[in-house]
Specification:
The protein has 294 residues and is an alpha/beta fold. It has one domain (2-274). The chain has helices spanning 2-15, 20-37, 39-52, 58-77, 79-84, 87-93, 102-105, 120-129, 145-155, 171-179, 211-218, 253-270; strands at 94-98, 110-113, 135-139, 161-165, 182-185, 196-201, 204-209, 222-230, 237-241.
């Protein structure tokens, strides 16, 4: 297994020498193959789109999911550039909008709230390439040790990242924030009901983390939403650092979770094909409810 992982990483390293436009074309082709053969993930994506965008016809949903798989494959191949390309090349390819320097100038700690669009790792790179504040990040540890090391090294290769796993206690991360790190927080996935509540997401009850609101409230953090988008062809990526929220957090974490979901809904409607539809966002169900994915 480790040998296979090393061969895969060698392929990824070789890919980073290709122009981004060539990677984009390869990604579209790979996406068509994935859409054809990744039956279970295709079904998950179609079900998510059916639940979240019921106004679309069946044919429209299928077209959207086909396009989604092409963007998904691109995002997988383009990790080669994120992990191995020079900082100068990345700065040319990542187009920043908004105040990327908020964490440097704020007198309060900053939380970047980043939904799971397919270019979420590009947003993570941007927080290290275009500003100088140390960034702490939470990730899911990989079962393969070779891939886990590569993931940590790739995401933290610019020297500003402090990486914490979801399996760890939150205390080391809280200490890092108190020392001055900004917090890069992708918090819109279904991690079960631990520190979560059921709140609406596109009209469906979705297990949504309360920790972002509670952490921001307890540490008096400034919350700045950030959205990353992959641009067509070899144009690179756009990362939008939006104005910080003045209405969030409040002392009602459940209401904050619902407000966060409404904002993510609006962003998805701007760029629906690039949201992470293959994730089982509604996997956790209220007691007595059947699975939405059967």
């Amino acid at each position: 297994m480790n040998l296979l992982a090393r061969l895969l990483l060698l392929l990824v390293w070789l890919l980073h020498f290709l122009p981004l436009g060539v990677q984009a074309a390869l990604g579209r082709g790979l996406g068509r193959v994935m859409h054809t053969f990744a039956h279970s993930r295709r079904r998950v994506a179609l079900r998510n789109v059916e639940l979240c965008l019921p106004e679309l016809s069946q044919a429209q949903r299928e077209v959207l999911v086909q396009e989604h798989f092409q963007w998904l494959a691109r995002s997988l191949l383009e990790r080669a550039v994120l992990w191995y390309a020079s900082p100068e090349r990345l700065k040319r390819l990542i187009h920043i909008e908004g105040d990327v320097h908020l964490a440097e100038t704020s007198s309060r700690p900053v939380m970047w709230l980043v939904p799971h669009f397919l270019a979420v790792d590009v947003a993570g790179a941007a927080t290290q390439l275009f500003q100088t504040r140390t960034v702490c990040n939470v990730y899911t540890a990989q079962s393969n040790t070779v891939l886990d090391r590569a993931l940590k090294k790739g995401r933290g290769r610019f020297g500003l990242a402090e990486m914490f796993t979801r399996q760890q206690s939150a205390l080391p991360m809280v200490r890092a924030i108190k020392r001055g790190s900004a917090f890069f927080n992708p918090s819109d996935m279904d991690f079960g009901l631990r520190d979560a509540a059921f709140v609406p997401f596109f009209g469906q009850q979705a297990a949504t983390l309360l920790a972002p609101s509670r952490l921001a409230h307890s540490l008096n953090m400034v919350v700045q939403p950030v959205v990353a988008e992959t641009l067509p062809g070899g144009q690179g990526w756009r990362v939008r650092f939006l104005p910080p929220w003045t209405h969030w957090p409040t002392d009602n974490a459940e209401a904050d979770a619902a407000a966060m979901n409404r904002w993510i809904e609006a962003e998805i409607r701007r760029c629906p094909a690039q949201y992470l539809w293959v994730h089982k966002r509604f996997k956790t169900r209220p007691a007595g409810e059947a699975s939405l994915y059967r």
